[in-house]
Amino acid sequence: MRFTYEALLCIDDEGVYHAHLPDIESCWASADSYGEVIDALAAILEEYLEATLAAGDEAPPAQYDHRVYEGFFPVLLCVHARECTSSDVVSAAEAARMLGVSRPRVTVLVQKGMLHGYREGRNLLVSLQSIYDRLRYYPRPTASVPSYEGPDDVDVLNAEPLFDLIHPSYESEDY
Fold it and tell me: How many secondary structure helices (H) and strands (E) does the chain include?
């Protein structure tokens, strides 16, 4: 779905750009350039909308008549948010199994924004698309057996065990 909101931007004395969305509480970003602050705010807005829609709530209505204070200028911000259905999410335990990590690690990944997820009561639900994206961009390392790189004249498979060379066998006649 496509959403358009009005953002208010300003530049501080140090040249840092700040932007916020008056329609959505606590949705703001800061960056060193205009493009960076717009990209950051768009990513935050997209994540917020996807989580809101996935939780079954409606997106907040957009308003375009905000009071613009001195030093601020309005910008229209348009994002595409994918609406998640119940088949597009899995439990944190299932996400952990798919990723090969622990369930608490999945919770941390959601809190840090590395996976998209939301709480439904006490349950943490994670979007399948964010799991697939993580697996595609951060594949799990495969376990490999280290190879033996010894001298070429040693036959590793048929060598006499080192233990027998150091300690004589207990079945010897000397005992």
Answer: 5, 7
Please name the residue that has the structure tokens 């199994």.
97
Question: Virtual CA dihedral for 170, 172, 174, 175, nearest 10 degrees?
Answer: 30
Cα 73 to its chain centre, rounded Å, is 32
Nearest to 49 by CA among 20, 71, 80: 80
Residue 75, H or E segment: strand 72-80
pLDDT digits (tens, 9 = 90+) for 81-110: 766 555 688 899 999 999 989 999 999 998
Task: Determine which helix (DSSP H) or strand (DSSP E) holds 120, and give its type and residue range.
Answer: strand 117-120
Structure tokens at 18: 């700040």
d(CA 168, CA 161): 11
Average pLDDT over the chain, rounded to whole? Answer: 78
Retrieve residue 95's tokens. 């996400």
pTM comes to: 0.50
Q: Say if residues 41 and 77 touch (Cβ distance below 8 Å).
A: yes
